[in-house]
Amino acid sequence: MARTAPSQISFADWEFVQQKISLEPMLQAISDFMDGQARLVEKVRRDLERGLRHPDTGRNGLSPTQVLRSLILMRVKNWHYRELRERIADGYSLRQFTDFYSQPVPKHDAFQRAFTRLTPATLRAINQLVVEAAIDLGLEDGKRLRVDTSVVQTDIHHPTDNTLLWDVVRVVTRLVDRLRHLLGRKANRFHNRTRAPTDATNPAHDHVATTSATSPQVSRTDHDH
Hints:
Elements: H1 11-17, H2 25-34, H3 38-49, H4 64-77, H5 81-90, H6 92-97, H7 108-116, H8 120-136, H9 161-183, H10 203-214, H11 220-224
């Protein structure tokens, strides 16, 4: 894992700062607001270094400030990872906002790996910070919630209709069981179908039926010959 400590400012970065590049009003307000969030930057740094044996060694990578500001930019603009990377790399103002300045901008998957290392607690703090900033700027009233998701590769079974229905049965059964424990009484009208292996909705039953239907049959005539 890359080092997360901030690097020393270079002559190219110093020249970049001297250009006096202006941000759009919303990003400027967010940037000014983020300048006073040292505790949140420290949370991000701890998440990036979590599980590393030697966090102070290795190649330089995304700094906590770059990760935090890039994530906020991605949320505010509703960009995907590739667009986020391309916009930062091509724009002076976004380089300044995300603290990259004249430094090379890594590929999109570097942002994805950095963002996924952030813990749920840190993400909640970031989301709360974004909401507070949006309310202060008059961009949101905080009364409605709009969320987005990211696709993560995982192992799943082939989504046939029967297996999807069986997944619903299992999840509903589990939720009803939790509700029963919370209420302290039985759900008399609810039957646990996961305990019925011969049920038509059970994928195991469907597999047996399918196997039987597709197995090659040897006729008596062929056997006799």
